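Researcher: Next entry in the queue.
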Amino acid sequence: MRVIQIVPSLLYGDAVGNDVLAFFDVLKKAGYETSVYSYSIDKRLAGEGIFSMDDIPSINDDDVVIYHMACGSELSFFFKDLTCKKMLIYHNITPPHFFELYDKHSERICGDGYKELELLANYTDYALADSEYNRLDLVNMGFICPTYVLPIVMPFSDYDIKPAENIIKDYGEDDYVNILFVGRVVPNKRQEDVIAAFNMYQRLYNKKCRLILVGSSNVSDRYRERLTSYIDFLGVENVIFPGHIRFDEIIGFYKTADVFLCQSDHEGFCVPLIEAMYLKTPIIAYDSTAVGYTLGDAGIQTDTKDPVITAGIIDRLVKDEALKKEVLETQEERLKDFSHE
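Model: Structure for this entry, 341 residues:
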């Protein structure tokens, strides 16, 4: 018996890719014959056991194939027609309407993904989701096989590297308050709502502050341009887009941040919340979709995105050491559920 994982794209630093590699490591250590196949493989991830879909062998009936799904792909139809045991790991599909005004390609593959997910409901033996929110997606799509939640496993030792010295020097050695969000610059992440809250914090409470929005924007440049126009319209200062940066630089931004602020409208899991908890950055997050499932009782979760209210919460968290200590304690407790070990 072989355990074969398939994924449309295996990307460096991507949450789905990291989960694929974590499964590969666990399966290999458990003694299984295992491999990964993908249409697109980041050259930094090429190595033993990782192959192109062009090289996938014939699948035997006693094999197990695990399909990691987060968008539409022809892999769905390959998976559907297999006669072996089949497991779907569902990482969530962003609703296509978020991309309607910005990115027709993303709108199409997300729309296709929902259709394919519904198709696979009757062709899957076992399904895992990385949050209860995602598991309910499967149930609502008509999956009749057993469905369970298996949170993304986090290799926390990877985060114990030395943070980039240039980030610590540039952002951690003055008296500015640093507000951070990490995530792709795409419409469902609602970076404009983070900017709006930061604008009110800067106007009402503290001129000496920065907003750092870490994340790539190559798939939705129109949205990135809209954010720039919004910043200009508000007249807000010190908003920084570092782009897709080195891992040690990301660690540096977490280490120098006073608050991690998430205002996303749609998350299937939200790995940066776990990263912020591990790196001891207190979190304020709008409780939408999977955010509450990921945080549990940790952080400060809000039911509003009113920028004036959010700005007030930021100010309180920055100034009140007892509150900050309490928030960090809730985050440390929640982390125990996500250990790679």
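Model: The mean pLDDT is 94.
Researcher: Noted, moving on.
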